[in-house]
Write a structure and sequence with these properties.
Structural class: alpha+beta
Strand order of the largest sheet: 7-8-1-9-10
Oligomer: single chain
Helix content: 40-55%
Largest sheet: 5 strands, mixed
Length: about 725
């Protein structure tokens, strides 16, 4: 961290010079592709097919990159990728300038440009300690990943000698390859002709890549068999693609190893537990026993590893010979990485202790971390962050350079920490076409790629197929969405997206409804596009799911009903009066303020209704407060709190509510937190308009005026207006 400080202006000049040189060289890069080491080394930053996968260890990466870049030179796709890569270079230059400015400013203050980094590391220590302390104490998370799933399914019914030859599934686009082909750099997401060239040149013409047509019906049948075998160990397993599954085998291990039960007895008990509801679970609890004992059995990690090995063997037997690899760790992110370590047909165990986790994750390339893709890897490499240990060492720098969400993710990744409520699967799946989603997924999508140049009728037919496929998946998962997005990739590989959110109360799941919306959206995209409208990909995504509001509440965000039930000053005072023998000091203060506001409202003249922004706008001036509706005060008796009822704000039907009626109908009616008006019908839009009108009323003006008067009378700090609404 220490060393000489390069002045900030010279760094900026150097950065600008680098950017100009990069821009000049970019125009000539197409003709000179593959001729320099810098071009070949940047291949992985341009295309997925240049990145390593399991089984590619020890290949001649430099030569593979040269062939890929040479065969892709001049293509529309490569030009688009180079354009995107230039944008990444610009972002990197901006980050370098940001860092240089920070070092320069710190050096001018205390002659130590790196002191802020040590301060940043110190500030992160409590967060790191909290993450380390919250780490699970044992390793029971398992990720099972099938070995070359598509091609392995095909080879089961073909001559055995074919398995010793380089093979792949797919023609124009390779969806997966066997491990023989991977030694030549052939992998998923690679064009077929590039795979052919790699095998031909790297084998010196001795071998040819064999292409096998895809058969997704076969892969789906095998996937069901695999999940059936794995479900014996975790009935609640999560499968985000055909070739991968996430399991927590903790309960199975506790019963099988900890208590010595037979496999059949454990399977029956776990299946019964997952099927019964809470009301019908008593006999299951009697069978399992004490819950704490069930969860916290002390089982040696070697015994857990033996269970994983047994599970993999059951999959092989059930499928007739398909092998799988597995990772066992304390969280699913580590298990996902570990599942890729000993492929094919192997497993990797990562211990639960902090030391064991760091020993496993720190030597890894940052690209191995699920969620770090080509762009992030290049940005990190630009600051000499190549392995996970570098990511932890430069944690203060990372926190400074990146946005909070990205910085928080990278810090957790550097510690091998993961939130297991989310799917940690990597951006690249082993099989092209498989998709991943989180258990708390925010969207679901389908897309289709085809040759460009389709007619308008053919495009609409493709779009209809995508919509029907997506609708079927949503019905199976019981998902309904409020927002739908269209994705269009042109022949130039430019991507156009358009989104639409349905009106309140309307959700999307029906295929015909999706088709109508997407057809209209595609037509608008075509009309707005200038130039040739030649499409090579259509995709549809649904998001903003019905029921997300419940998850928002779980994350701490309150809806309007919850806000009213907890924050209304009127309701808070009522609860104090009903549930306590005496009136608290806070209740008295609230009622005093409300009474004062009501008295002021009685004497107000007729004023005009206006928007809430005009009240708070400094340009409008304080006198604009006079432009509000007249408010009528209704006294429901000496024993009840006054209710302030504005005259038809927002054209809503409302009736004044007494304290008793509010308490009686609290669960099925809304009460304004300002004027205590009860709304008979639950209409959120009308209710919001009413609150806006109340906030624009003279009540707020009088409260603010009274607060100003009190602040002059008393040297003691007075409760602020904001505190009034928090009561």
């Amino acid at each position: 961290d220490s060393g000489s400080v390069v002045p900030y202006p010279s760094l900026v000049a150097q950065s600008e010079s680098t950017q100009r040189n990069t821009s000049k060289s970019g125009s000539a890069s197409t003709a000179a592709m593959g001729t320099s080491s810098s071009s070949s080394s940047s291949a992985s930053a341009l295309i997925i097919s240049a990145c390593d996968k399991a089984g590619m260890e020890g290949i001649d990466r430099t030569r593979v990159d040269e062939i890929i870049m040479r065969e892709s030179a001049g293509s529309v796709y490569m030009k688009q990728q180079q354009k995107r890569d230039q944008n990444v270079n610009v972002k990197i230059d901006e980050l370098k300038q940001k860092l240089a400015a920070k070092d320069y400013s710190m050096a001018s203050i205390n002659s130590n440009a790196t002191s802020w980094r040590r301060a940043g590391e110190h500030a992160l220590e409590p967060i790191i300690d909290e993450l380390v302390q919250s780490r699970p104490r044992r390793s029971t998370c398992v990720v099972v990943d099938m070995d070359g799933f598509y091609i392995s399914c095909e080879l089961l019914s073909r001559p055995p000698e074919l398995g010793n030859l380089p093979c792949c599934v797919g023609g124009n686009m390779i969806t997966t390859s066997n491990y023989v082909a991977r030694r030549y750099g052939v992998r998923a997401a690679m064009p077929g002709w590039i795979g052919d060239k790699l095998v031909e040149e790297l084998s010196n013409g001795k071998e040819r890549l064999i292409h096998i047509p895809s058969n997704f019906d076969l892969y789906t049948r095998k996937a069901h068999i695999i999940r059936g075998a794995l479900a014996e160990y975790d009935p609640n397993l999560r499968a985000y693609s055909l070739d991968e599954a996430y399991l927590d085998i903790g309960p199975y291990v506790d019963l099988r190893v900890g208590r010595g039960w037979s496999h059949e007895r454990v399977v029956a008990t776990l299946a019964s537990t997952s099927k019964h509801s809470c009301e019908d679970k008593e006999h299951v609890d009697e069978e399992v026993g004490n819950e704490e004992e069930f969860i916290h059995c002390n089982v040696d990690i070697s015994a857990i590893a033996a269970v994983v090995k047994e599970m993999r063997e059951k999959v092989k037997v059930a499928t007739g010979g398909l092998t799988c690899s597995a990772g066992l760790a304390s969280n699913f992110m580590l298990a996902k990485i570990a599942s890729d370590q000993n492929k094919p047909n192997g497993q990797k165990v990562v211990g639960p202790s902090h030391k064991e986790v760091l020993e496993f994750v720190h030597p890894l390339s940052v690209r191995k971390v699920p969620g770090i893709g080509r762009v992030m890897e290049k940005m990190l490499n630009a600051f000499d962050i190549h392995i996970v240990h570098d990511l932890y060492k430069e944690r203060a720098l990372v926190q400074f350079l990146f946005k909070p969400a990205s910085a928080r993710f990278l810090l957790r990744a550097s510690l091998g920490w993961s939130n297991d409520s989310l799917d940690p699967s990597a951006p690249e799946d082993d099989e092209v076409g498989s998709s991943s989603s989180a258990s708390g997924q925010k969207g679901i999508s389908k897309e289709r790629t085809f040759s460009a140049g389709k007619s308008w009728e053919e495009l609409n037919s493709k779009l209809e197929d995508v919509c029907r496929s997506l609708s079927q998946s949503m019905v199976e998962k019981n998902i309904k969405a409020h927002t739908i997005t269209l994705k269009v990739k042109l022949h130039t590989f430019d991507v156009i997206t358009r989104a639409k959110t349905m009106p309140r109360g309307i959700v999307l799941q029906n295929a015909d409804q999706m088709i109508v919306e997407m057809t209209e959206m595609l037509l608008n995209v075509k009309r707005q596009h200038k130039g040739t409208f030649s499409v090579r990909l259509l995709g549809v995504r649904c998001s903003n799911f019905q029921g997300d509001e419940e998850r928002s509440q779980d994350s701490g965000q309150m809806d309007i009903s919850k806000f009213i039930s907890t924050c209304s000053p009127i309701r808070a005072s009522h609860n104090s009066l009903v549930h306590s023998t005496g009136t608290t000091k806070m209740t008295s203060r609230i009622e005093k303020k409300v009474d004062f506001a009501q008295k002021g409202a009685q004497t107000d003249a007729q004023v005009k209704n206006t928007d809430i922004s005009s009240f708070f706008s400094k340009e409008k001036g304080w006198n604009k407060v006079e432009e509000f509706e007249t408010a009528q005060v209704l006294d429901s008796g000496t024993n009840s709190t006054h209710a302030l009822h504005s005259v038809d704000p927002g054209n809503v039907s409302s009736v004044p509510a007494s304290r008793d009626s509010i308490m009686a109908n609290q669960s099925d009616s809304l009460v304004c937190p300002v004027c205590n008006v009860k709304f008979v019908e639950y209409d959120n839009d009308q209710f919001n308009r009413h609150i806006d009108a109340c906030l624009n009323s003279s009540m707020v003006r009088n409260l603010v005026r009274q607060e100003c008067i009190d602040s002059h009378k008393r040297p003691k700090k007075k409760q602020r207006l904001a505190d009034f609404f928090k009561c």
